[in-house]
Specification:
heterodimer, A: mainly beta, four-stranded antiparallel sheet, B: 121 residues, seven-stranded mixed sheet
Protein backbone atom coordinates (compact mmCIF):
# COMPACT_ATOMS: atom_id res chain seq x y z
CA UNK A 1 0.00 0.00 0.00
CA UNK A 2 1.13 3.57 -0.69
CA UNK A 3 1.60 5.56 2.50
CA UNK A 4 1.08 9.32 2.32
CA UNK A 5 3.02 11.35 4.87
CA UNK A 6 1.65 14.87 5.15
CA UNK A 7 3.27 17.69 7.10
CA UNK A 8 2.86 19.69 9.15
CA UNK A 9 -0.18 18.34 10.97
CA UNK A 10 -1.13 21.88 11.90
CA UNK A 11 0.07 25.40 11.33
CA UNK A 12 -0.79 28.92 12.34
CA UNK A 13 -0.17 31.80 9.95
CA UNK A 14 -1.17 35.41 9.48
CA UNK A 15 -3.49 36.74 6.82
CA UNK A 16 -1.43 37.35 3.71
CA UNK A 17 1.23 34.79 4.59
CA UNK A 18 2.44 32.13 2.19
CA UNK A 19 1.48 28.67 3.47
CA UNK A 20 3.20 25.47 2.35
CA UNK A 21 2.05 21.90 2.99
CA UNK A 22 3.96 18.85 1.84
CA UNK A 23 2.95 15.29 1.10
CA UNK A 24 5.39 12.46 0.57
CA UNK A 25 4.39 9.15 -0.98
CA UNK A 26 6.09 5.91 0.03
CA UNK A 27 6.53 5.03 -3.64
CA UNK A 28 6.34 6.71 -7.03
CA UNK A 29 2.74 7.75 -7.77
CA UNK A 30 3.46 9.86 -10.84
CA UNK A 31 1.19 12.88 -10.67
CA UNK A 32 -1.86 10.97 -9.39
CA UNK A 33 -2.57 13.24 -6.44
CA UNK A 34 -5.48 15.38 -5.26
CA UNK A 35 -5.45 18.16 -2.69
CA UNK A 36 -8.66 18.76 -0.72
CA UNK A 37 -9.96 21.47 1.56
CA UNK A 38 -12.39 20.53 4.31
CA UNK A 39 -14.17 23.03 6.51
CA UNK A 40 -15.83 21.92 9.78
CA UNK A 41 -19.04 20.00 9.21
CA UNK A 42 -18.64 20.09 5.43
CA UNK A 43 -17.64 17.60 2.77
CA UNK A 44 -14.13 17.79 1.34
CA UNK A 45 -13.71 19.96 -1.73
CA UNK A 46 -11.18 19.23 -4.43
CA UNK A 47 -8.80 22.14 -5.00
CA UNK A 48 -6.01 20.53 -7.05
CA UNK A 49 -6.07 17.38 -9.19
CA UNK A 50 -3.29 15.52 -10.99
CA UNK A 51 -0.87 17.22 -8.58
CA UNK A 52 -0.88 20.65 -10.20
CA UNK A 53 -4.18 21.32 -11.96
CA UNK A 54 -6.46 23.88 -10.36
CA UNK A 55 -10.07 22.74 -10.10
CA UNK A 56 -12.55 24.99 -11.89
CA UNK A 57 -13.64 27.92 -9.76
CA UNK A 58 -10.85 27.58 -7.21
CA UNK A 59 -8.95 30.82 -6.50
CA UNK A 60 -5.53 31.10 -8.08
CA UNK A 61 -3.82 31.63 -4.72
CA UNK A 62 -3.99 27.84 -4.37
CA UNK A 63 -1.41 25.80 -6.27
CA UNK A 64 0.23 22.39 -6.29
CA UNK A 65 3.52 21.05 -7.54
CA UNK A 66 5.44 17.81 -7.58
CA UNK A 67 5.55 14.36 -9.08
CA UNK A 68 6.88 10.96 -8.13
CA UNK A 69 7.05 10.93 -4.34
CA UNK A 70 7.22 14.57 -3.26
CA UNK A 71 4.36 17.03 -3.53
CA UNK A 72 3.75 20.56 -2.32
CA UNK A 73 0.55 22.53 -1.82
CA UNK A 74 0.79 26.31 -1.53
CA UNK A 75 -1.56 29.07 -0.50
CA UNK A 76 0.23 32.16 -1.80
CA UNK A 77 -1.60 34.65 0.40
CA UNK A 78 -3.64 33.19 3.26
CA UNK A 79 -7.18 34.54 3.57
CA UNK A 80 -9.56 34.19 6.54
CA UNK A 81 -11.85 31.93 4.51
CA UNK A 82 -8.96 29.48 3.98
CA UNK A 83 -9.21 28.26 7.56
CA UNK A 84 -9.76 24.54 7.10
CA UNK A 85 -8.07 21.17 7.13
CA UNK A 86 -6.24 20.18 3.96
CA UNK A 87 -5.64 16.63 2.77
CA UNK A 88 -3.68 15.00 -0.02
CA UNK A 89 -4.83 11.73 -1.62
CA UNK A 90 -3.06 9.45 -4.05
CA UNK A 91 -4.98 7.55 -6.72
CA UNK A 92 -2.18 5.72 -8.46
CA UNK A 93 -2.96 2.41 -6.74
CA UNK A 94 -5.73 1.08 -4.53
CA UNK A 95 -6.12 1.61 -1.61
CA UNK A 96 -6.52 5.27 -2.50
CA UNK A 97 -4.78 6.57 0.59
CA UNK A 98 -5.07 10.01 2.18
CA UNK A 99 -2.50 11.99 4.06
CA UNK A 100 -3.18 12.67 7.71
CA UNK A 101 -4.32 16.23 7.14
CA UNK A 102 -3.05 19.71 7.94
CA UNK A 103 -5.17 22.03 10.06
CA UNK A 104 -4.60 25.64 9.04
CA UNK A 105 -5.41 28.37 11.55
CA UNK A 106 -5.06 32.14 11.61
CA UNK A 107 -2.43 33.57 13.95
CA UNK B 1 -25.62 20.56 -11.71
CA UNK B 2 -23.95 17.46 -10.31
CA UNK B 3 -25.58 16.30 -7.08
CA UNK B 4 -24.80 13.35 -4.83
CA UNK B 5 -27.14 12.70 -1.92
CA UNK B 6 -26.34 9.99 0.61
CA UNK B 7 -28.95 8.31 2.79
CA UNK B 8 -29.38 5.27 4.99
CA UNK B 9 -27.20 6.19 7.91
CA UNK B 10 -28.28 5.79 11.50
CA UNK B 11 -27.67 4.01 14.78
CA UNK B 12 -26.98 0.28 14.61
CA UNK B 13 -25.76 -2.25 17.18
CA UNK B 14 -22.40 -3.97 16.83
CA UNK B 15 -22.73 -6.94 14.51
CA UNK B 16 -25.66 -5.34 12.72
CA UNK B 17 -26.11 -4.31 9.11
CA UNK B 18 -26.91 -1.13 7.25
CA UNK B 19 -27.25 -0.21 3.58
CA UNK B 20 -26.18 3.21 2.44
CA UNK B 21 -27.43 4.77 -0.78
CA UNK B 22 -26.10 7.62 -2.88
CA UNK B 23 -28.51 9.16 -5.36
CA UNK B 24 -26.73 10.79 -8.28
CA UNK B 25 -28.08 13.44 -10.61
CA UNK B 26 -26.88 16.04 -13.08
CA UNK B 27 -24.54 13.74 -14.99
CA UNK B 28 -24.52 10.48 -16.93
CA UNK B 29 -24.08 8.08 -14.03
CA UNK B 30 -22.96 5.07 -16.05
CA UNK B 31 -19.95 6.95 -17.41
CA UNK B 32 -18.23 7.52 -14.07
CA UNK B 33 -16.57 5.39 -11.44
CA UNK B 34 -17.71 6.05 -7.89
CA UNK B 35 -16.18 5.96 -4.42
CA UNK B 36 -17.06 5.71 -0.76
CA UNK B 37 -14.93 7.60 1.75
CA UNK B 38 -15.52 7.82 5.49
CA UNK B 39 -14.46 10.05 8.35
CA UNK B 40 -14.63 8.97 11.97
CA UNK B 41 -15.53 11.74 14.45
CA UNK B 42 -12.61 14.12 14.82
CA UNK B 43 -10.41 12.04 12.52
CA UNK B 44 -9.06 12.21 8.99
CA UNK B 45 -10.44 10.87 5.74
CA UNK B 46 -10.34 7.14 5.00
CA UNK B 47 -11.02 5.66 1.57
CA UNK B 48 -13.46 2.74 1.83
CA UNK B 49 -14.28 1.42 -1.63
CA UNK B 50 -14.35 2.19 -5.34
CA UNK B 51 -16.36 0.76 -8.23
CA UNK B 52 -15.73 1.38 -11.91
CA UNK B 53 -18.43 2.63 -14.26
CA UNK B 54 -19.13 -0.87 -15.55
CA UNK B 55 -18.81 -2.51 -12.10
CA UNK B 56 -16.03 -4.65 -13.57
CA UNK B 57 -13.46 -3.30 -11.13
CA UNK B 58 -14.16 -3.07 -7.41
CA UNK B 59 -11.72 -2.36 -4.60
CA UNK B 60 -12.03 -2.25 -0.82
CA UNK B 61 -9.95 -1.03 2.07
CA UNK B 62 -8.56 -3.92 4.12
CA UNK B 63 -10.51 -2.61 7.12
CA UNK B 64 -13.85 -3.39 5.43
CA UNK B 65 -12.99 -6.22 3.05
CA UNK B 66 -15.31 -9.19 3.52
CA UNK B 67 -17.86 -7.11 5.45
CA UNK B 68 -18.82 -4.31 3.04
CA UNK B 69 -20.12 -4.66 -0.52
CA UNK B 70 -20.32 -1.81 -3.01
CA UNK B 71 -22.74 -1.89 -5.94
CA UNK B 72 -24.44 0.44 -8.36
CA UNK B 73 -27.72 0.55 -10.26
CA UNK B 74 -27.60 2.50 -13.52
CA UNK B 75 -31.38 2.46 -13.94
CA UNK B 76 -31.76 4.18 -10.58
CA UNK B 77 -28.63 6.36 -10.87
CA UNK B 78 -27.61 5.10 -7.47
CA UNK B 79 -24.56 3.83 -5.63
CA UNK B 80 -24.86 1.53 -2.63
CA UNK B 81 -22.75 0.31 0.26
CA UNK B 82 -24.00 -2.77 2.07
CA UNK B 83 -22.33 -2.88 5.47
CA UNK B 84 -22.46 -6.09 7.51
CA UNK B 85 -20.86 -7.19 10.77
CA UNK B 86 -20.55 -3.58 11.82
CA UNK B 87 -18.07 -2.61 14.51
CA UNK B 88 -17.70 0.42 16.74
CA UNK B 89 -14.73 1.53 14.63
CA UNK B 90 -17.01 1.79 11.59
CA UNK B 91 -18.69 4.80 13.22
CA UNK B 92 -18.16 7.66 10.78
CA UNK B 93 -19.66 10.03 8.28
CA UNK B 94 -19.78 8.19 4.96
CA UNK B 95 -19.36 10.20 1.78
CA UNK B 96 -19.93 9.15 -1.78
CA UNK B 97 -17.66 10.80 -4.31
CA UNK B 98 -17.62 10.76 -8.09
CA UNK B 99 -14.45 9.83 -9.95
CA UNK B 100 -13.36 12.04 -12.83
CA UNK B 101 -13.92 9.37 -15.46
CA UNK B 102 -15.04 5.78 -15.96
CA UNK B 103 -11.82 4.49 -14.40
CA UNK B 104 -11.33 4.26 -10.64
CA UNK B 105 -7.77 5.60 -10.74
CA UNK B 106 -8.67 9.14 -11.72
CA UNK B 107 -9.26 10.85 -8.39
CA UNK B 108 -12.52 12.43 -7.34
CA UNK B 109 -14.29 15.66 -8.21
CA UNK B 110 -17.78 15.89 -6.69
CA UNK B 111 -18.73 14.78 -3.19
CA UNK B 112 -22.01 14.35 -1.35
CA UNK B 113 -22.68 15.86 2.06
CA UNK B 114 -22.36 12.55 3.86
CA UNK B 115 -24.49 10.32 6.07
CA UNK B 116 -23.62 9.46 9.66
CA UNK B 117 -23.34 5.84 10.75
CA UNK B 118 -23.11 5.19 14.47
CA UNK B 119 -22.34 1.69 15.71
CA UNK B 120 -23.11 1.41 19.39
CA UNK B 121 -24.95 -0.81 21.81
Amino acid sequence: DVQMTQSPSSLSASVGDRVTITCQASQDIGNYLNWYQQKPGKAPKVLIYDASNLETGVPSRFSGTGSGTDFTFIISSLQPEDIATYYCQQYDNPPLTFGGGTKVEIK
Amino acid sequence: EVQLVESGGGLVKPGGSLRLSCAASGFTFNRYAMNWVRQAPGKGLEWVSSISSSSNYIYYADSVKGRFTVSRDTAKNSLYLQMNSLRAEDTAVYYCARARRYDILTGTDYWGQGTLVTVSS
